[in-house]
Amino acid sequence: xxxxxxxxxxxxxxxxxxxxxxxxxxxxxxxxxxxxxxxxxxxxxxxxxxxxxxxxxxxxxxxxxxxxxxxxxxxxxxxxxxxxxxxxxxxxxxxxxxxxxxxxxxxxxxxxxxxxxxxxxxxxxxxxxxxxxxxxxxxxxxxxxxxxxxxxxxxxxxxxxxxxxxxxxxxxxxxxxxxxxxxxxxxxxxxxxxxxxxxxxxxxxxxxxxxxxxxxxxxxxxxxxxxxxxxxxxxxxxxxxxxxxxxxxxxxxxxxxxxxxxxxxxxxxxxxxxxxxxxxxxxxxxxxxxxxxxxxxxxxxxxxxxxxxxxxxxxxxxxxxxxxxxxxxxxxxxxxxxxxxxxxxxxxxxxxxxxxxxxxxxxxxxxxxxxxxxxxxxxxxxxxxxxxxxxxxxxxxxxxxxxxxxxxxxxxxxxxxxxxxxxxxx
Length: 426
Ligand code: PMP
What we know:
By secondary structure, this protein is α/β, with parallel strands linked by helices. The chain contains 13 helices and 17 strands. It is globular and about 55 Å long.
C-alpha cells in the first residue's frame, strides 16, 4: 500500500466534495506524531482540526474507550441511558462559565450542536431571527451553512439557506474593523433588517476558527451580553474549536467574564470520538418539549467514556496552562521567522494554542497572499509536517497542536516549516 495508490482509489470512490488536504494515508498515531502507510513520520500541527487536545491515543482516553467497548457500545441515550452520559453532563454543567444552573444535551457533530442551539433559542424566545458574524464558521448542514459567514467553498451551490439570518462584521484590529464599528453595525440591523424583538439569538465564536483565528475582545463580548440582556436576545457562544483548554482556559469566553445563554462544544470534548454537546442555562435548555431534541447517536457511550477521560486528563496534566505555554513557544518561533520575512508575514497572533500567521505581499495588510497559504500544507505533507490553512481571505496558516505536544517536537516541526517556506518561495 502506498499513498499515491490510495489517493487514486480515494478519488475514484469518494466524491470530490469531500476533498483531502494531503495524500497522506494514516497507519497509526501517538500524541503529536503520525505515521503513514509508507512508514513516513509526520509531526502533527493540526490535531485533527483542534480535536486531539489530549493528543493521539492518550493512554487514559484509550483505556476508557476500550473498557466501555467491552461493556456495550450503543443503546441510544433516548431509549436506555447510562451513568456516563449523566456524569458527563454534570461535568459540563459545572464547567460552563457563569453561575446560573446549567443543563446539557448530547449530539454527534459540531454542526448539530449549533443547529440545536437555534432550535432551543427559538423554542425559548418564540422568535425567529439569528444574528451571526462575517467570517464565522458553524458547520455544513443547511441551517449552519446559513449561519456560516464565508462563501467559498462551503456555501457554493448549496442554497437557498434558511431565512431570518443576518450577518454583521466581526471586530478585527488587524483588518481595521474596530469594535465600535462592529457594534454599531450590529445595532443597525435592528433598524435596517429586523426588529430586536424578533431576534432569538446572537451567535459568535470567541475566536473565529476557520475564519482565521481572530479573537473578539472581552469588552466586545461584554457589550454583546449587555445588548442581548437589553432586548431579551440569547447569546450563543460557539466553543467548538476554542473549547476544552485550547485557549488557556477550559472555555475561551470565561476570559471575558461573560456567561452565555447557550454554548456549543464538540471537537476536543472526546478526543476524536464523535460527540458534541449544547450546554446552557437550565430554564432555556428545558424550553423544547420532551423528545424534541436528540438523535440516534447523540451521547454515545463510547463518546461519553472518552469525554470523561478527557476532562480528567485536562485537569491532571494541567492542559489549560500547557495551552498557554505551547502558544507562547510557537509565537516565539514564529516572530523569529517573521523577522526574516517582514514583508511576507503580516501578523503573528495567538489565543493560547490557537496560533496563526497571516501572509501578505509587501507587508501590506490589504494585499493578502492566499496562494502561499494554500501551497504550504501540500509542501509540508511531503516533508513530514501536518499543517492547516484557514482565513476569510485564505491567507492564514494556523497551528493547532495537541496541548500535550513535546517542546522538542515543536522545534523540529518549526525547522521543517522554515524549510517548507523557503521551498514555497523558491
Ligand atoms: N463551529 C466551529 C467554530 C467549528 O470550528 C466547527 C468545525 N470546524 C463547527 C462549528 C462544525 O463542527 P463539525 O465539523 O463537527 O460539524
